[in-house]
Structures are given as structure tokens and as C-alpha cells.
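Give me the fold.
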Amino acid sequence: MKPCNHSHWLSLHSHHGEITFTQSDRAATLLHSLLYLESQRPSLFVLVGNRSKARALRELASASTGKRSAGRRGHGEIHLHLDPSAPFSGRPILFADGDFPLQRNTKPSTSEKCHEVTNTLLPKPREGLPSEALQAAADKIYFRLLFPFTDVFCFFALDLGGLQPIARRIAAWLDGGHPPTLPVVVPPQIIIVTETSTPEFQESQFLEHFLHLLAHETGADPSICFAAIRVVALLPEGQISAAARHRKLKEALMIASDQVRLQRLGTSMLFSAKHLAAFLRQACSCFVEAVSEPFDFIRASRVGNPPALDLKEHLTNFLTKINTIGELKNFAVPLIASSLLLDGYHPDMHHVFRLLYKDACLRACRDGVHLQDPAILILPSGSVRMIEDSFSELFVTLSSRPTNRAVDLHHQFFFDLHHDWMAFHLDDTCLTCLRRTPRYRLPCGHCICLNCVRDFGILNEHDSWLFELESCVFCNISTSGMVIKDLPPTASIRLLTIDGGGVRGLATLQYLQCLQEEIGLPYPVQENFDVVFGTTSGGIIAIGLSICGWTIEQATENLERYAKLAFQPRSIWNTDIPLVSQFLQVIDFMVSYLADSRYSADNLEAALREAFGSSRSMLDYSNATRTGTCVGLPVTTIRDTSICVFTNYNGVGTRSRNCVGYHVFGPSDGSSRVPLWEIARCGSAAPFYFKPKHITGLGTFQDGGLRENDPGNLALEEAAVIYPSIDEPSLVVSLGTGSSRPSDIPRMSPSRGIFQDGFIARLLRAFKLSFGSVRGHKFRSRRREGRKEQYFRFDMEFDGPEPALDDTTKMQELKAAARAAIHGSKELKRLARC
């Protein structure tokens, strides 16, 4: 942006009894112009007055910044300037200059196009005259908004009508009620500037007189809110040069600032320019929401990153594993304290603990601490006190080592951990931080969350969002080169959904093969997607491509081979004699009915074990971990066909209570250790073809295609949960498995008898239609109108009945038809360019 001379920052204006607070982005603009935001620690001087103040400002902040800003300045405005030496100084100085507003209607400040300006109507005061409201609001700007960040308030008595008006305003500040900040910060100092020909002789008398006036205005002790009050008397204008005249004031300001900064440094409240800009922004937001409330540094520092809502549950999960007083004192307490320190690093640790964590710890200790020794009784409050003390001790340790970070201290705790506790395992709580649900299981068996991967992983030098985790943080056992991909916060989400359809799933692989050829890049096409969902055979494909890292060619070969293995009928009768053949079909149907399936599950299960291993789970380290792909596979329950979803991200995410219609398995369900082949087996249990699959501790499940053969809507819902900060996916690719071409005219023939149109035949036809995906596709097309360029659906239609789910004789024909349907497609070419 082109530099400008506008210095307006804050102002008030009154119109018909209503007060409007105006703020610009001046502070953020100045602070972000500094060269070293992380290390430079600014000072803020607030100068209050008019002409004398303006003359002083020209000498203190140089003529270039002390000049009046472009445009006419009104009463009640506060302007902000930066000392010209600031970009190269470790202590940049900000000068805020304003005055006391007149008690009458004022005009709003002119809004400049080169600045971002916000106007907010302040709440009307409950008491007091309307004429006093503007002055009261100005007092709150100085004492509530600016006070926490100011080193020195400097009042120019000659501009403000003498000492009495200054005493009256400071008394109003002191009588304001609540402290201006939480926790209470190191207070600023006050300097009052006067003029006299004998300054040394007059200063002490002026100060004594001012304190007398202040005591007459209020009974409050000024030392509670101000570290010191001093009078600086300047020689009258004209007796010496302006620079020499104001040198004394400058020295007094710097001495007072030095004293305040030293105390703030000792309490870790001397903020960097980056943090000061963020706190000032939050302070302005808090001011307009609650004018009279103190500014809470701790809560402001956690805006956008509040303590976990389920912190109590995670701590309880952990504490229920603690059995002895030794484990509680030597392991649980310091680990919880270190974890909370990592989460809530802030100078006043006792205040942080009580404000953010005490309640969750108390409830967790009440529910989770049950020691096996009945002779030892520890009250929840006693456990909490131990955690708080350990929490504060760790901060003292951290403060004594300026080069250390909280994450380093936490890592050292695990490094020193006794080997007796290495056997601790939790699937529902990350043992590294005790605050989040884990997403990844390491080779050692411990689970870790994405935040801890970011904290403790090593960034890949070629990819800033690829983390290398050399060893488990908890037990230090090697991971053999585990890498985890994270999604950049500015990235968009890309979805791939694959319909179910038995052997017709081969069609979806042909679509992907053609897409990969069209893109022409030397990496698997599935790595272009962040979320991949598949139903039935689509689920097997999703697992194979994303989790196992199959190529398209490998997936095609495997699916053909496993289909031939799985779809082997029980019947050994085979004849071409018509009546005998029909009779044998009836017998075959009766056998399938009594066996609850047409095919034995043994062959299918053997194929799935061969494909995915006998013990590998969705949560284990996989190709999807390396590529950052979230995979979901829907199944249905056998009782009410409710939709349940298995995921490789452990069900992480907050789902609305209104989000009905499906259930995502999480660690509390015990799903994280279910073998991958069993999940695929549940998803493949199409009624009539295969028996449902029972999973111990979870229930019995069948094919998800009964409810969501096209899992696109589920994938959209889950993408919003996994990535709540991203409005919607930038790309959705949906792959269908084909359906019969619909007739323009419904077939309304009379009944052809019980065998052709009886209830069994009608149910079978309805069942086949349930595996269609046209309705879901059309619904999403309508839902995404205006953004259709981001939604791609590839499918095909058959002139006659579509091949049956188990018709392995049509596999080569299906592949050829799918390639023919998509080959040369404009949509395919457009997708390849996305």
C-alpha cells in the first residue's frame, strides 16, 4: 500500500445521545512495518493535551511524525505515531496523542480509503446525564483500552486547564471499579507537564498540590493503579531552543519507561511487536463488546485456540489408568502439568491454571483418580493442588532457561520417563499432550494427535507441510522413518467418492486410469485428493489406493482376482435341462436363504486378509498417513440400517448435535483396533450375497450401499468436520458404477404371476435400485448450483439391465465400456486441468 500521512487511530463522536467508537488499522500498520516483529519490544507513551502537546510531540517523535495528520482533527481523537528510529531499534517507541473530548455533539472522523476503519455504536450508559457520557467513554478508552499497554501517561497542564481537570479525570479513572486488566499488570507511570521559570524549585510544590487535589476528588489510592506520579516543569517557550526545552521531558519519559519495562520484563509481560499488535486488536474488540469490563490477557491470548472442550474427558481417560500413589505423584501429576504448560504458556501460571484448567482437572480427578490401595485417600482438590504446584514449578524452570521452549521441556520429561510407564497405551487420548484425540498409531503402539506431530515432528526440507517423526515422543522407540502429511491452512479440500457395485467397481478404476493418463504426472492420481470415501467395492478400492498405496493397475488386478475368489457359488449342480435347471435354482435359493447368503464368506475373508493383512488397522501408519488422506468407509447396522462410518482419522472432529443420519466411529467405540480386513468385510456384506459381519464390542454390520451407495453426501459432511475452517471443498469428483438407462415411460404392465412379480421379485428389484446413485448425484448437482465447475461426476448407462454385482464374466466388458464412456470426455480434460 502506498504510504500516507493519516495518523488517526481511535476516536469517539456523539450524535443525539448515541456514542460511536471509531478505530482504524493504524496500530497494526505501524507495528507490522517493523523489521523484526518477533524480537522488537515497543514502548507506548500516551500524551494528552493540545498545543503544548503538539510542540512536544514534534521534538519527541521528530517533525515528520509530529505534524498534524492530513485533514482537520476533531476533539476526542487519538492519533498514533512511530519514532523514525523504530525500524532498527530493539525498543520502538509509539506515541499516542489525544485530548479530553468536549461535552457536546461531535462529528465523526473522516474515513480515509487508505485505511481500514470500523465504527461501532457503544452501549448507552445506565445512569448519568447524556452530556457526561462522551467524557465517560473517553475515560474508558484511556483507562480500560490503553492502560494495559502504556508505559507513561503524559498530561500537559497548560492545555487542559491546569492541575484540577487532570486530577478530576484521574479520579474518575480510579473510581471506575474493576481493575483495568486481568491478571493485574505492571502499572504505568504518570508525568504532568507544566511551565515555570524556576522548574527545579516548583516541581515538588506542583506535585504536592496535585496530590492534594486528587485526594479531594477521590479516596482511592493512586499507587494501586499507577507506579509513580511525577511533575516535569519546562521553561517558558522562547527562553531556549525547542529541542533543549523538551530534552528534560524526553529524559523523564525514558527513565519512567525504563522502570516500567524492567518490571514487565520480570513478569514476562513485555510484549513483542507481533504480540502487541494482536493484543491491541483483541483489546479494541473487547472494548466495544463490554466497555466497563477489564481486559483479560489470558483469554485474549487464547482467542482462536481455547482449551479443549473435552479436556476433562481426556484427563479422565488417562487418570483411570493410574493405580498407585506413586504413579499419581511421579508420573500422572508432572505429565498433566507439563502438558498444560505446553498448551497454556503464559507468565502468571497460577492465574492461568485457575482460569483455564482448574475446573477440568477437578472434575477429572473426581471421576478418574481411584487408587487401588484403600488405605490411601486423596481428595480431588488435593490432586488438583499437586497439579497446580507442578504446573507453576515447571514454568519457573522454563523461565530460568530463556533459550528453552515449553515444547522442549515437555520433550525432556518424556526422555527422562521411567521405563516402567512405557507400557501405557490409550487410543482415545493422545498420551503426548493429554488434550486431544489421536489420529495416528505409531509402530510402538502409542497414538499421537496431529498437533503433537506439528510440535515434535521435523519439517521436511522440501515440503513445509510434511513432518518426519523419527521416534515416538512418549517412549522414544524408533518409527523407522515415519512421515505425516498435514494440510496447509490456506489449501483447499479435494474430495474423491467411489460408488459401490461389486464387480462394476472396475469401472471406477478405469475412470481413474484415464484421469491419470490425462494429467500425465509421475505420481499416483489418488494423491491429488485429501478426502476419499468409498462404499462396498468402492470402499475396498479407497482402502487399497489410499491406505495400501496400490497403483491403479494393482487395484484393477487385485479386484478382479478377489472377485473371482469371493464369488464362488456353493451349488455344485449344473445342467442345461430347462425344468431341472429351474428346480435347481429354487434349491440353490433355498440353500442361500437358510445360509443367509448366496456365497460363503470364507473365500471373501481370505481374499481381504491377503489384501490388507490380518491385524493391520485403519489407525496404523499407512500410505494415507504419508499423503495426508482422510479415508472413510460407510456400513449399515442390521437392525435399523443406520449408517456408521469407519475412518482412518479416528473420528476426530466436532459434529453438531443436529448432525443426524449417520454415526462416525471414534476411539470411545473401540473401533481403532478393528482389523482393516474386517472393516472391508462389513462394507462388502451385501444382503443375499454375503452374511453380515459381527465385530466384537461394536455390533453386526452389512453393506453401506443399502443407504448410501454413493457416499458423496457423507464425504461432504465429514470434510466440513475435519476441516472446519474451510468453507467447502474446491473439487469434488464422484465415480459411479453404472446403471440401466431409465425408460421415458414407466412400465405399468399387469402382474405376470407370483414368480415374476411376487413380493420376492419386487423386493429384489427394489434392492437392486437401492444400489443406484442417481438420486444422490442429482441432489449434489442442485446443492452446488453456481459452483458446478468444481463438481465432476463420471458414470455410465447400460442399454439393458446392468451387470449383477457378482457377474465376474462381465469384468472385461465393464472395463472396456467404462473407458469408452470417458475417453475423450471434455469433462475429463477440464478436471485434469483443475
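The domain at 9-298 is CATH 3.40.50.300 (Rossmann fold).
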